Structures are given as structure tokens and as C-alpha cells.
Amino acid sequence: DSVPPLRNEAAVHVLRGRMKGIQGHCNSCYMDVALFSLFSCTSVLDSMLFKPFPLCDRNVQSILRDEIVNPLRKTGFVRARSVMHLREQLTEKGQCSSFTNAEKDPEEFLNLIMHQILGIEPLLKLQSEGQEQDCYCYQIFMDKQEDLVVPDVQQLVERSFLSSNLKLVEIPSCFIIQMPRFGKEYKMFSKIIPSLELDITDLLLDSPRECCVCGDVATLECS
To answer: How many helices (H) does the chain have, and how many strands (E)?
Structure first.
């Protein structure tokens, strides 16, 4: 079955309140948050649930679709044992025993399920100093900046790309962004405001842009 993602008032009605979302268990938070973000209110990656990719593991695909995504969209709640079922399969396929009990980086989870298990083509093409690299998500790395107290996602992405000298080679079909990491003792930002739209004009390689002085098409770019 295909259950459409939640939208507008329906999303609020289904997802708000106690016993909603994906139940956490045994350091599953990194996976719970990633799955909720990717599937609860958007269909951009629904091909992961149905499409027979070249390397696709149908068992993992059915667990993801039938035990996690569909219940989340229908009732707004996913039991911890459903996520554990997925984690057990990832442990078996990924040859890493710690997927069922240890905290992982979301990027590690996405690379495993998208690349090794489902065989999806990389979603992003980045260029840095003439070298291209393919990836499935972009993790924001940046130094602490005093003028950013409560930043939005737009500011963080732009400054991260600038500090790392990165450009998008092409417009991505899906742009998965991981916010700056923090531990229990330190948080870079107490809050980050979600940008409901993301302007990637200045992040695109060789994209025509307006000169900030004369208004014509720019021929030079400086940081």
C-alpha cells in the first residue's frame, strides 16, 4: 500500500500530542529523527519504498515501507520494535554489529541504506577546488561565529559552503542537510530556525547571477 505524506492541518492533527512520532529505544535517536524527517511530510524519497533499484533488498524495503513509513503517516506513531527490526536488518547487511545498540551518525545510516542496501544514485554532486564528490547528504561544518546567535538554515548552509569552498555542481533532486553536531556538554547554537525555502542560487557552480554594483550579469565573484 501507498500512504501519502501528511500535509498542513492533517500533519498537525496526526503528529501533535503524546505518543506521537517514532518511539526511541537503545540509542535509536539518530535513525528516528532521520526517518521522521525524510518521510513524515514529504514524498521526495518515496522511491526508496517502491522502486526496484539494481541492488535493492526487498526485505529492508518492505520493513521501511510497511512497519515504519505507513504507520507514521496513518497514525503518527511508530513502535520502537519496528525500528529495531530495521536496525537488525541493517546490522546483517552492513556487517556492523553496533547498529542495534550504539549511537551512529545519521550520514552513516543514510549511506548504508541508500547506497549499499537499496543502490540509489547519490543525491548531491559537490565541487571543491576542482574536485567533484558525490554524496547522499550534506553535513554543516563551521566554526563558531559570534554574529550568529539564532541562525536560520539558509545562513548556516551559505556560510558552511563558503568556509569549505564548496559549490553544487547541479540542482539536487533532494537536498538532505544535517545541522551542526553537538554533544551533551556543548551546543554551537541553542536554536536553529528552519528555512521554509532554501535559495541555492549563490551555491550553484557557474550559475548566472546579478552584479551587486551595476545589476548586469556578473563576471566576477568574491567571497
So the answer is: 8, 7
Per-residue pLDDT band for 58 (boundaries 50, 70, 90) equals confident
- Dihedral sign computed on CA atoms, order 119, 180, 30, 33: negative
Contacts of 57 (CB under 8 A, 6+ apart): 89, 93, 117, 118
Same-domain check for residues 17 and 109: yes
The span from the first CA to the last CA of the chain, in angstroms, equals: 49
1 located within any domain: no
Q: What is the pLDDT of residue 37?
A: 95
CA distances from 104 to 41, 83, 117, 185, 187 (A): 24, 14, 17, 18, 18
Q: DSSP H helical segments within the chain, as ranges?
A: 8-15, 29-39, 47-50, 58-62, 70-75, 80-94, 106-111, 153-163
Query: Could you list the residue range(s) of the whole structural domain that residue 83 is in?
Result: 8-117
Q: How far is CA 60 from CA 86, 105, 110, 179, 189, in A?
A: 7, 20, 13, 27, 35
Find the helix packing angle between 80-94 and 29-39, rounded to 10°: 100
Cβ burial, residue 131 (10 Å; 0-12/13-18/19+): exposed
Among 117, 140, 157, where does a domain finish? 117
Q: How far is CA 200 from the centre of its chain?
A: 16
Total structural domains in the chain?
2
Look at residue 56 and tell me whether its pLDDT is greater than 80: no
Q: pLDDT tens digits for 174-201?
A: 999 998 876 666 778 888 999 999 999 8
